[in-house]
Every structure is written in C-alpha cells, then in structure tokens.
Amino acid sequence: MKRYLKINEKDNVAVALLPLKKGDITEEGICLNEDIEAGHKFALKDIESNEAVIKYGNLIGYATKDIAKGDHVHTHNIRTSLGDNDSYVYEPINIEEKTKEEDTFEGFLRPDGRAGVRNEIWIVPTVGCVNSVVKKMETEAQKFVSGTLEGIVSFNHPYGCSQMGDDQENTRKILADLIRHPNAGAVLVVGLGCENSGVDEISKYLGSYDEERIRFMVCQEEEDEIAKGLSILEELSELTKKDRREKISMDRLIVGLKCGGSDGFSGISANPTVGKFSDLLIERGGTTILTEVPEMFGAEKGLMNRCINEETFTKTVSLINNFKDYYRENHQTIYENPSPGNKKGGISTLEDKSNGCVQKSGTAAIMDVLEYGDTVKRKGLNLLSAPGNDLVASTALAAAGAQIILFTTGRGTPFASPVPTVKISSNTGLYERKKNWIDFNAGELIDSEEMSLDQIGRNLYDLVKETASGRKVKAEEEGYHDLAIFKKGVTL
Q1: First-last CA distance in the chain
Q2: Residue 84 within any structural domain of the chain
Q3: Contact at 8 Å (CB) between 249 and 468?
Q4: What is the spatial distance between Cα 111 and Cα 114, in angstroms, rounded to a whole number?
Q5: What is the average per-residue pLDDT within 137-166?
Q6: Using alpha carbons only, how large is the chain's radius of gyration in Å?
Q7: pLDDT in tens, 232-271
Q8: Are residue 150 and residue 258 in the same domain, yes or no?
C-alpha cells in the first residue's frame, strides 16, 4: 500500500494514506517535520505566507504563515480563499459523448411511466401535529405487509403550519413530490384539519393523480382516526400487492449523490468512485443529481464549464450566488464549513471539501439545474439547490425524483432518507467497524494497488442495480426512514 498520494501533478501538498511519523522520508526525499495522521496533508515544497495551497490541481486556500517542506498543512496554517460573489465566464470544455449502452433492472413500472425501486405504502402527515398518529398507524399496519408490498412507512416532520412565504411553499412542494414518488405504490395523506398546508392545499400541488392509490384523511373529521386510517391502509395494501417487478431500462433510474461526515480520503476514494458510477449510469441513459450547493463553493468553476449550454451555465451561476446571498442575508459567512468531524479527518477549508465533494459528479455534462422542490425533467447529470445538511439535502434529492441515494462518508452515520440510501465508506477501517451502517467500501481503492477506479466504479454500479432490483440497504434492514424539509424563515 502506498503511504501517501499526490492527487494532481500541480499539487504542492500530498495526502497521507496511513499514519506517518516525524522523520519519515518520502520517495522524493522529503523529511517529515511532524507526525501526519492518515487523511491529512503535508507540504511537498516550501510554501510562503499568502501563497496558494493546491490540492486536486485547484486552490484550496492560502498559507497563513511560511510552511516548510514536510510540514503538516491544516487549519493552523491555511485559510479559506472564499469571499464575495465571483464573476464567472462560460468557458465550455469538450465532453466526449459516449455511445449509449442498454441495461435493465427489476423494478415497478408506474402508470405515469416512472419506475419505482420499492413498492411501499407511505403515510405522509401534512403537519407535525399528527406525527404521533401516523407513527401509530405505521406500527399497527405492519400486519398488512406481505407479498410484493415491501413496507408501510410513515414520515414525521415538524412543519405544515405556522409557516409563511418560502417556508410554507417548500413544505407543500416537498410533500407533494413525495406523495407522487414512484417508490410508493400507494400513499395515505393525513392532515389535522386546521393547518395552513392541509390536505386541500397539498392536493392542489399534485396535478393529476391516481385517486385510488393516493388517499386523504383529516383527523378532526374522524371519530377514531386510527381505525379509519388502518381501514384505508388495508384497502391500499390489497392494491399494492397486485404490483410486480419487471424488467425496466436503466434510463428510468435516477440516483441522488450526497456526501457527509467526510475525511481526507473522501475526495480520493469514495467520491471519485461515485463519480465513475455516475458516468456509467449516464452512459446507459440514466440520471444523477448532485446537490449540497455550499459544498460546491470553491469548486464551482469546473462545474460551470461542464454545462451543456449557456442557459444552464447562467442557471448554475445563479445557483451558487443565490446560496451565498442566503448566507449573507442571515449574517453568516459563506465558508462556515467544514464541520469539526471533517477537520479531524483532514479537511482544512471549504474549498478543500468542495473540490473533493464535486468528484461525485464524474465527468458528464451538466444538463439542467433544479430549484429546491423541483423534479427532474432532463436525463443526465443535474444540479439541485439544497443545503449541505445531510437529512435536508437527501430529502430534496428524493423529492426531485431520485429512487436511490448514494451517500459517501469517512466518519459514518446511521441516517436514512425517504428512499434507499447506500452508504459508501471512504476508508476500510470505517467499513470494518460499522458494517451495520456501511453498504460499500471504497477504501479498497486506497488499500489495493490492483483495484482501479474503473473496476470499483463498476462494482458500485452492480450494487446499485441490485438495490434497484430489491436488495435492501443497511438502513432499510434497520428500519430507518428520515425526512427533513428546508426551513429559511420565521416560525409564527
């Protein structure tokens, strides 16, 4: 196993792949001046104060003091380069258009032409006041689960009332997107009866829908809301048990891309592996969605130049600058990231994290940019406006149409989302330690010199195909399902 990695020929830092000791000599003859933890960086040359620190071939910050060759490079001697909105120029790069390949998975074809990778009944509350009611319904309704009905799941959230403006709109759009999600063979929407975003309001956001498969109930109108809900769920269960898996083209698969709890390996193992998967899926006509806009800051120019046309470039500029404005409107700095866990894992600045984060997007052209609450309209790689928060961003990906989410991590997390969430570890230690959380080990890319990015990307593609065809991920086996909605403003 290699001891360290220089990611790009332009880099003036390298990443330790295993713990290095003070006095160790590199292949280039550099003597390390201090211990370097795995995932952390050390200088490959003398870097003067205010000189650019380069990783991934890109700027990740500036030295705050003179850094000697062999020194540890981290938060104590590097600062962010981020500040006000930048000016951007569209400089499109030539992206090779590859021949489409045919492939299929075993899924549930819905009447509207979309495909589900699960056949579940979802219980969706319109307001947090009925969370306990829908949770009790979920528990008591498990007796209906059998055959091709794979689960009955409720999604608690605290919103739906006492909201105004964008917050109220976000809640309505996200709930409507989930109610129409193809992973749900049927849905029971449960309202209280006096909330701002009650069943009458939510139904307006659905457009045309199957009234047999999407049902509504208002608790204040029922003498026994639990009994009524269970009666409806039993009826829905009989309908969904008629559904069968069938061969469906991979061009109907939409996969969300997300990372969290990153470490110094995330950008060189897990995220590039997901990027290779993304390219493979897109070559088969499928779609991927990259989100967490604040973790594009500092790496956005490379994304912008991959936009399919100038209109998409302009939308990407707005995506970035609107999120920076959101930070400033709330009197926050745009670079208030990485988290303590990220820093402990070796990530020093937001640019450091961002340049690793965008590796998940692979090399494909960016076909479209989605606002929060929008759903996918164009196949291929899409960008989605959502924050970096794991639960909020993953819910936004599911609402945008993702039937599966790939979540890379160097620290580990048990969280789930409304759809199967495949956890991908950046290092083998995490995979071995938390096998009840982690589904796939990208640390093999670091551990074995025989493992290529092409091969591990193909391995992940095969796992996703199996997941789309019914294989449960670890979070599903544990019964975890989470939902979180983006809140920006006042709570009344």
Answers
A1: 57
A2: no
A3: no
A4: 7
A5: 97
A6: 23
A7: 999 999 999 999 999 999 999 999 999 998 888 999 999 9
A8: no
Closest Cα to residue 351, out of 79, 87, 85, 90? 79
Which phi and psi (to 5°) does residue 436 adopt?
-80, -10
Residue pair 3/30 in contact (Cβ under 8 Å)? The answer is no
Predicted TM-score (pTM) above 0.90? yes
Residues in the chain: 492
**Residue 382 and residue 365 share a domain:** yes
Task: Please check whether residue 28 lies inside any domain of the structure.
Answer: yes
Average pLDDT over residues 43-56: 96
3-class secondary-structure state, position 270: helix
Same domain, 456 and 436: yes
Cis peptide before 338 (omega within 30 of 0): yes
CA atoms of 85 and 282, how far apart (whole Å): 32
- Write the pLDDT tens digit of every residue in 93-108: 988 888 788 999 999 9
Residue 4 β-bridge partners: 16
CA nearest neighbour of 375 among 393, 360, 392, 396: 396
pLDDT tens profile 11-25: 999 999 999 999 999
Q: Which domain, by its residues, includes 330?
A: 250-477
**Spatial distance between the Cα atoms of 107 and 468, rounded to a whole number of angstroms:** 7
Angle, CA of 380, 474 and 272, to the nearest 5°: 40
- In this structure, what token pair is assigned to residue 88? 């951007």
37: its two tokens: 């933890």
* Residue that terminates a domain, selected from 42, 58, 79: 79
pLDDT per position as a tens digit, 320-369: 999 999 988 888 877 765 678 788 889 999 899 999 999 999 999 999 99
Amino acid at 240: T
